[in-house]
Task: inverse folding
């Protein structure tokens, strides 16, 4: 076979194959289209049937809901009708009750009027009877009453006086015995220390060489200590002992703590002295607060303001006639509670009133007024009960008609009258030194005033920027003249005015 014929046959085979393939594909596509259309028609028919079913179901549900709503409405109508019927019935009952009440009221009013008429008639009869009696006796009602009472008093005077005297004596004996027993029981249950305060404090030195170091060159160290503390240091030949003299326990305590720190540190000089005195004052403030907390804890008094606790602690360094006020107040609190228990009075309130009765003495040196007035003001400020404040204000009054205050007065008298509890001479001595400091401090330009040497010397520190040297000289004379004119004292008092200039600068 020739190549041309071969090519022609090949082309014919390709053409025939392509035509057959096209025909076959067309037939297959046509068959698929017919199948899809059939399925679509079937799905459409199914959807229509489903739609009809849903519509029928929805109609059934709607009809059911409407029927339920109608039933519920019918039920509510029946309930409303029943409620309305009950209300109407109650209104009818109320109307009946109101009518009955009005009728009873009218009847009662009629009875009241009848009783009033009867009373008026009785009063008229009584007046007529009195008039007839006055006519028969020839005396008025008041005259007859006075005559009868006078006759009865005359006939019974002797017997009544005897009976009254007997009752008074019996009651007095019973009350005195009971009061004595109460006081004895309270005293036996309360045991307190009666040690007296002194005006000097001893401090032990590690060696006598320390005395010279405390004095310092030209007395600079000891002068600084005395100026900043207001106490006098007594250094004599007694081995290993130094005395701190001063009438104020707080000043002595500050000086004592500062000297203790100086002795431990070993560097005794004016700068270190000032530093340790400041530390001692801070330490004393903490000690005062601790003393107040301990005293209140022992008495079971809680819930107080921290400032009031610190004011209580100051009583540790306050004395009255040589008796420590904090110890005295604690003792009065115990005694008041014991007496109150025996009398059936609130012991807790009595204990508080007894403890706080002298609270004003903690700041009476810095505040105007008596310690009773100051105490009442302090207690009211911190919200203490009225009974406690009243006892603080009136515990020195003769008559109070207040049971808590009377108990505190009795306990206060017991505590103050114990043997060895107080010394009048010490209190008078302290008052004299306080007056001396006050008189000397009334001039302008004065910084600090300290009475030392048992009141035989007054040291006055002036402000150098306000008082010059010539002014210091005149100030000493003026203070001496004022002391002579206003105070009474044995011997003579030395007025020592000190003017010190201090300049501080820093190298940067």
Result:
């Amino acid at each position: 076979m020739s190549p041309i014929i071969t090519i022609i046959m090949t082309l014919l085979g390709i053409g025939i194959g392509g035509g057959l393939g096209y025909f076959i594909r067309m037939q297959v596509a046509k068959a698929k289209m017919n199948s899809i259309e059939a399925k679509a028609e079937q799905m459409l028919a199914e959807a229509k049937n489903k739609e009809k079913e849903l519509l029928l179901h929805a109609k059934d549900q709607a009809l059911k809901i409407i029927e339920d709503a109608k039933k519920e409405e019918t039920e509510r109508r029946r309930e409303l009708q029943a409620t309305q019927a009950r209300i109407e019935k109650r209104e009818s009952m109320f109307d009946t009750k109101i009518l009955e009440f009005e009728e009873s009221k009218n009847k009662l009013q009629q009875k009241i009027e009848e009783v009033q008429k009867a009373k008026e008639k009785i009063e008229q009869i009584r007046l007529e009877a009195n008039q007839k009696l006055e006519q028969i006796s020839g005396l008025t009602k008041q005259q007859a009453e006075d005559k009868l009472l006078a006759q009865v008093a005359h006939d019974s005077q002797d017997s009544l006086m005897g009976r009254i005297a007997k009752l008074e004596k019996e009651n007095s004996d019973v009350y005195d015995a009971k009061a004595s027993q109460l006081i004895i029981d309270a005293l036996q249950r309360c045991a307190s220390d009666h040690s007296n305060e002194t005006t000097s404090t001893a401090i032990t030195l590690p060696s006598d060489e320390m005395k010279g170091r405390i004095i310092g060159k030209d007395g600079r160290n000891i002068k600084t200590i005395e100026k900043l503390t207001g106490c006098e240091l007594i250094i004599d030949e007694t081995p290993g002992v130094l005395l701190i003299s001063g009438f104020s326990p707080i000043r002595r305590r500050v000086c004592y703590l500062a000297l203790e720190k100086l002795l431990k540190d070993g560097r005794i000089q004016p700068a270190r002295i000032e530093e340790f005195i400041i530390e001692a004052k801070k330490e004393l403030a903490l000690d005062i607060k601790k003393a107040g907390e301990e005293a209140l804890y022992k008495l079971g008094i809680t819930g107080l303001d921290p400032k009031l606790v610190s004011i209580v602690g100051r009583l540790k360094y306050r004395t009255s006639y040589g008796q420590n006020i904090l110890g005295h107040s604690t003792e009065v609190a115990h005694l008041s509670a014991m007496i109150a228990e025996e009398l059936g009075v609130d012991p807790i309130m009595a204990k508080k009133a007894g403890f706080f009765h002298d609270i004003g003495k903690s700041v009476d040196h810095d505040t105007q007024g008596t310690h009773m007035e100051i105490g009442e003001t302090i207690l009211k400020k911190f919200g203490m009960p009225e009974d406690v404040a009243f006892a603080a204000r009136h515990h020195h009054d003769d008559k109070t008609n207040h049971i808590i205050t009377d108990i505190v007065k009795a306990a206060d008298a017991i505590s103050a009258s114990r043997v060895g509890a107080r010394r009048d001479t010490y209190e008078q001595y302290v008052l004299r030194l306080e007056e001396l400091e006050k008189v000397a401090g009334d001039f302008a330009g004065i910084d600090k005033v300290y009475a030392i040497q048992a009141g035989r010397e007054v040291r006055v520190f002036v402000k150098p920027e306000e008082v010059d040297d010539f002014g210091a000289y005149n100030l000493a004379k003026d203070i001496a003249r004022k002391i002579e004119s206003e105070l009474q004292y044995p011997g003579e008092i030395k007025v020592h005015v000190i003017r010190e200039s201090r300049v501080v600068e820093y190298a940067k």
